[in-house]
Design brief:
12 strands; five-stranded mixed beta sheet; alpha+beta; globular; Ribosomal Protein L22, Chain A
Length: 252
């Protein structure tokens, strides 16, 4: 069984209202995009939601400490390891990796209103972005040709959403392979198909074994995941609000 845990934190005031919508979104299997499925293995997905609208989260002097506790909390919850025993290191290009406990991967993403962390037995990249107006000439300059074409092919009101769809997926891919922006954005392409995505990268060893998920979240955000396994065919989902516990232990 593959276990994938998604940890979501919120700095806005709309989380409680959005949770039922978020739950139904996760539970609809048609909303999960996974390419090149092999076998019949279930994937357990646990989503922990933390409302960080409390003013304590906004103090800049505490944000680094909060981020550190957030990472360690997620890893501890997933692995059962004591938080004080968790150690991290950085890869060649600066990607945070777990030293102890070994044989686990994690990845985080932060945007205005949310932080997301995934802990998994498999290498993974995650990205969440708040949807805001941008210069739609950016894809023509920095994306692969087929990606820019996909964005332009949408109606005017769709183009912004398509941009964030691909932007978050490209961020996920760069974070998964561990290069960040040391690898140019136009050196690979993520092309949406019919309920799936294809990843084209001549330098990749096995892009056909990556599982891809991308969905608009809470209306104003895009959340995407790319995971280095293609064996998941069903999702067993549990959503847990960790706000009372996390606030009691670390914030209030």
């Amino acid at each position: 069984m593959i276990t994938l845990k998604i940890w979501v934190t919120c700095r806005c005031n709309h989380l409680c209202k959005s949770m039922p919508e978020f739950t139904s979104w996760i539970l609809r299997c048609s909303c999960i995009y996974i390419i090149y499925l092999m076998g019949c293995v279930s994937m357990d997905v646990t989503i922990y939601v933390l409302n960080t609208s409390n003013a304590e989260y906004q103090h800049k002097q505490y944000q680094r400490w909060y981020s550190q506790q957030f990472k360690h909390f997620c890893i501890a919850q997933h692995t059962g390891c004591n938080m004080k025993d968790i150690t991290l290191h950085r890869g060649e290009y600066g990607k945070p990796l777990i030293t102890t406990p070994s044989q686990y991967y994690f990845n985080t993403s932060h945007t205005s209103g949310y932080s997301v962390c995934i802990v998994s037995d498999y290498n993974v990249g995650v990205d969440i972005e708040k949807i805001a107006p941008i210069d739609l000439s950016i894809p023509d300059k920095y994306f692969a040709v087929e990606e820019a074409h996909y964005i332009r092919a949408g109606r005017i009101e769709q183009q912004l959403l398509r941009f964030y769809e691909l932007w978050t997926l490209k961020e996920c891919y760069l974070k998964l392979i561990g290069t960040g922006l040391y690898k140019s954005l136009d050196s690979f392409a993520i092309v949406p198909g019919h309920n799936n995505y294809s990843i084209k990268d001549d330098m990749a060893t096995r892009p056909d074994q990556l599982s891809v998920f991308s969905r608009q979240f809470n209306r104003d955000y895009r959340l995407s995941i790319i995971m280095d396994t293609a064996t998941a065919s069903t999702l067993n989902v549990e959503i847990t609000n960790i706000t009372p516990t996390f606030n009691k232990d670390f914030i209030l």
